[in-house]
Design goal:
Oligomer: homodimer
Strand content of chain A: 25-35%
Radius of gyration of chain A: 23 Å
Number of strands of chain A: 10
Largest interface: A-B, 53 and 53 residues
Structural class of chain A: alpha+beta
Strand order of the largest sheet of chain A: 4-5-6-9-8-7
Shape of chain A: elongated
Number of helices of chain A: 8
DNA sequence: CAGTGGTCTAGACCACGCA
DNA sequence: GCGTGGTCTAGACCACTGA
């Protein structure tokens, strides 16, 4: 592990253990450099990490301070970016199941061509899965994936985890993803599989996943039961 | 403007103008340093910016490459973090109006105390606003704000923009915010003001806004008409 | 093994806050 | 004007990729 990450980790510990108190100024970069036996640049990089992680903020000419809400974020190791999450109501030791409703290969329609940046002759997998948590259905996925990019998908893979297959079997590295979230009325399919009543809304999430190289490899629209799923995220407004 | 940002900006232009083509390798850091008359460290910082912006990716030992989907992000100037947005269906030249439904001062309940990190004797403003776009109501806000942190809110301010007031009149600097998004059934108030039918869902957004110092200054729950608002965001999964 | 990116240093200068 | 953070350099070493 590089030195700047080590230093950042140590400072994070100090904040967590309240050695550096909330709302207070921490020692200046020169002192820290001396203490940790590094150059000041390295200290600066460490503090930049902690700034992005939301633990501290700096005022030029004044100092570096611990944020009032730092302890909320100080729990886990430093890893920025991981800031969008799906939360399901039930969490503990409940069995996650996937039921494959549909599994085809076909050519993409216009929207799919655009979103996946492929032409109309590039074959895609198309599958629909019902996700079940502790016996209760909670979301219905509709997904298309280019065969060229992610080859070898089988019904077996769909019952397990597609992402695990891509990561572990194909050793492909993920990149960003873009999502759009809406509230929507349930479709006929939703009512059938998610057991929605007529006036039960669904949380609709449209998503494109990219590889590290920027190649889109999955385009999906998921309907979640409104009473079992919410989405949370942190927005860094720099 | 610092040199590393200038360099990043120039490289961004080259990608946008296709001088550096998508999926191709760009010149190595040593050459770029020479060309721009900077040290290699400065080039590295510039490339880091572009990486975070989603324009390029690096493979150690191999080079720096333009991402396949780079042109999507290359439009505007470099500014990361601004990655969560509210999109309203109608955009062009439509008048935005705010109708104040309620405006009080009171003490906070338990949830509000927790979210705003204040005690039960800290007074808060509490207001409810209906937002109207081109004559059509589209969202209903319910907001609480500590009087100490943001003093001087008036009905006049509410009719204009609270954020503009905070930024410009009080010259206070914003920081992060956290949001939770859900689909929900309309409440009686929603039906009345947003003109929702019984089976029209709403998009519920619960939000806490923080100052740069990490002090929370606003806690709100907003209900949006499902057919006028959606939320989009980019997730950097590093 | 040559080329490329990732990290680190010591020292310098500048911009800003604050007394 | 002093102390603080922000930027920059020149040069070094290491880790990794790919021929």
């Amino acid at each position: 592990m590089p030195k700047y990450k080590e230093v950042a980790e140590k400072i994070r510990e100090r904040i967590k253990s309240k050695e550096y108190a909330v709302d207070e100024r921490i020692p200046d970069q020169h002192s820290l450099a001396e203490e940790f036996g590094t150059s000041r640049v390295t200290i600066k990089r460490a503090l930049d990490l902690l700034t992005t992680a939301g633990l501290v903020y700096t005022i030029q000419g004044s100092g570096t301070y611990v944020k009032r809400n730092a302890l909320l974020q100080a729990q886990s190791s430093i890893q920025i970016g991981h800031n969008v999450g799906l939360t399901t109501a039930i969490q503990d030791e409940v069995e996650l199941e996937s039921k494959v409703i549909r599994f085809d290969v076909r050519f993409p329609d216009e929207t799919e061509q655009q979103q996946l940046m492929i032409n109309k002759e590039t074959p895609i997998y198309h599958y629909q899965r019902l996700r079940i948590l502790g016996g209760r259905p909670y979301s219905l996925e509709n997904t298309v994936v280019p065969v060229n990019t992610i080859p070898g998908i089988t019904e077996e893979v769909l019952k397990d985890s597609v992402y695990r297959y891509i990561r572990e079997e194909l050793s492909i590295v993920f990149g960003d993803n873009r999502q759009i979230v809406r509230a929507a009325k349930p479709t006929a399919t939703d009512k059938k599989y998610l057991d929605c009543k007529d006036d039960d809304p669904v949380l609709e999430v449209e998503k494109i996943m990219f590889l590290k190289s920027g190649v889109p490899f999955e385009y999906s629209t998921v309907h979640h039961r409104f009473d079992m799923v919410e989405m949370s995220f942190i927005n860094q407004d720099n």
